Amino acid sequence: MESICVYCGSSSGIRKEYSEGARLLGKELVRNKIQLVYGGSSTGLMGQISNEVLKSGGKVTGVIPKLLLLNEPPNQNLTKLIYVKNMSERKEKMSDLSDGFIALPGGLGTYEELFDTISWARLKIHKKPIGLLNIEHFFDPLLNMLENSCKEGFISKASLKFLFISSDPHKLINNIINYTPD
Question: E-assigned strands of the chain?
Answer without folding.
Answer: 3-7, 35-38, 60-65, 80-84, 100-103, 130-133, 163-166
